[in-house]
UniProtKB/TrEMBL annotation, chain A:
<dbReference type="InterPro" id="IPR000182">
    <property type="entry name" value="GNAT_dom"/>
</dbReference>
<dbReference type="Pfam" id="PF13302">
    <property type="entry name" value="Acetyltransf_3"/>
</dbReference>
<protein>
    <recommendedName>
        <fullName>N-acetyltransferase domain-containing protein</fullName>
    </recommendedName>
</protein>
<dbReference type="InterPro" id="IPR016181">
    <property type="entry name" value="Acyl_CoA_acyltransferase"/>
</dbReference>
<dbReference type="GO" id="GO:0016747">
    <property type="term" value="F:acyltransferase activity, transferring groups other than amino-acyl groups"/>
</dbReference>
<feature type="domain" description="N-acetyltransferase">
    <location>
        <begin position="4"/>
        <end position="164"/>
    </location>
</feature>
UniProtKB/TrEMBL annotation, chain B:
<protein>
    <recommendedName>
        <fullName>N-acetyltransferase domain-containing protein</fullName>
    </recommendedName>
</protein>
<dbReference type="GO" id="GO:0016747">
    <property type="term" value="F:acyltransferase activity, transferring groups other than amino-acyl groups"/>
</dbReference>
<dbReference type="InterPro" id="IPR016181">
    <property type="entry name" value="Acyl_CoA_acyltransferase"/>
</dbReference>
<feature type="domain" description="N-acetyltransferase">
    <location>
        <begin position="17"/>
        <end position="169"/>
    </location>
</feature>
<dbReference type="InterPro" id="IPR000182">
    <property type="entry name" value="GNAT_dom"/>
</dbReference>
<dbReference type="Pfam" id="PF13302">
    <property type="entry name" value="Acetyltransf_3"/>
</dbReference>
Length: 172, 184
């Protein structure tokens, strides 16, 4: 496998972005909706990706094949933040997402000093995502029933969290 | 003596419990629990020290609130209970919160108030499918309220919430619209 790195997305990445973002399997399992046109995707880039506090391309040998993002909370939620990710289907099953999560969490607490908790949720039947979080050292905290509306249906989620004080996991 | 007289148990003192809107005219009753540091212990706020802050809270937070009720004994407020609403993909859930003057603790009053809310909120808000509540891991009394009211304990969310400058572990509870309604 080539080198996995994280970097901010640039507008020039739009074609590679669309390749994984419009992947049917990715759409099925993530909150990302299908982009009907390059213009829609560019809008999304300008409104969501570029101004985001922490939105990174997961790159294989420098080429974007997915994303990983961290959204810090505010007010009484300022000690926590939410992490999400998605990867193009042809790259699944090689430990790439796990590597990306470990890479991000290894610098996150320094980049966002007020953050003590990184949380992530996974659908109960999303075995691949559950395995990513477990391998990346996240602790399963419980099932939150009918937690959110996902593709029009309220779904149960598994809540995972990694604390700044949890034992570090090696990034290899 | 003919007949039987009703048994005067201490329970009758607290039987006339109701929920109603809280208004600025309730300020003196509000200040009873709002100034109490026992009550404020697990809350995000420090005990109130003056009436004007109390009035501002009622005007700015209570009156425009999506669902805020005074817990009343014989129609006088002795506490409050509320449900927040969310939007977008989070609109299926609302968070329950409550507070009670310490003089009335230990008499199952909050449990009854929670049951009353559970029996009305899902009808008032048809989009609501999940009523949740977060309780500090050390606030055992409040955890018991939710257990007795039929909520399910889902887990401990670690360092979830900042309370008075410190991150706290919180126990997550939920009651779904499809769960059996608690008997009042």
């Amino acid at each position: 496998m080539g080198e996995i790195t994280l970097r901010p997305y640039e507008v020039s990445d739009i074609d590679e972005f669309l390749e994984w973002a419009n992947d049917e399997e990715v759409n099925r399992l993530s909150r990302l909706e299908h982009f009907n046109s390059k213009e829609d995707a560019l809008c999304y880039f300008k409104e969501v990706v570029i101004p985001h506090p922490c939105y990174r391309a997961i790159c294989l040998d420098g080429r974007p094949i997915g994303f990983i993002a961290f959204e810090p909370g505010s007010g009484t939620a300022r000690c926590r933040g939410y992490m999400g990710y998605a990867l193009g289907t042809k790259y699944w099953g090689q430990g790439i997402t796990t590597k990306a999560v470990k890479t991000l969490t290894s610098t996150l607490f320094k980049e966002f000093p007020g953050i003590e908790r990184v949380e992530a949720t996974a659908g109960l039947d999303n075995k691949a995502s559950i395995r990513v979080l477990e391998k990346a050292g996240f602790q399963k905290e419980g099932i939150l029933r009918k937690w959110m509306v996902f593709k029009g249906i309220t779904t149960d989620v598994l809540m995972f969290a990694l604390l700044s004080t949890d034992p570090p996991v090696s990034t290899s | 003596m003919e007949g039987t007289s009703p048994v005067q148990s201490s329970k009758n003192e607290y039987s006339n419990l109701s929920l109603r809107l809280l208004d600025v005219s309730d300020i003196d009753d509000f200040m009873v629990w709002a100034t109490d540091e026992k009550v404020a212990r697990f809350c995000t706020w420090e005990p109130y020290t003056n009436k004007e802050d109390g009035l501002n809270f009622i005007k700015n937070t209570v009156l425009p609130h999506p669902w805020f009720r005074a817990i009343c004994l014989d129609n006088r407020p002795i506490g409050a209970i509320s449900v927040t609403s969310n939007s977008g993909n989070d609109r299926c859930r609302g968070e329950l919160g409550y507070v009670l003057a310490s003089k009335y603790w230990g008499k199952e009053i909050v449990t009854r108030a929670v049951k009353m809310v559970a029996n009305t909120i899902f009808e008032e808000w048809p989009h609501l499918e999940r009523l949740e509540a977060l309780v500090d891991v050390e606030n055992v009394g409040s955890q018991k309220v939710l257990e007795k009211a039929g909520f399910q304990r889902e887990g401990v969310l670690r360092k979830y919430f900042v309370q008075k400058g410190k991150s706290r572990d919180m126990v997550m509870f939920s009651l779904l619209s499809i769960d059996p309604r608690p008997q009042i």
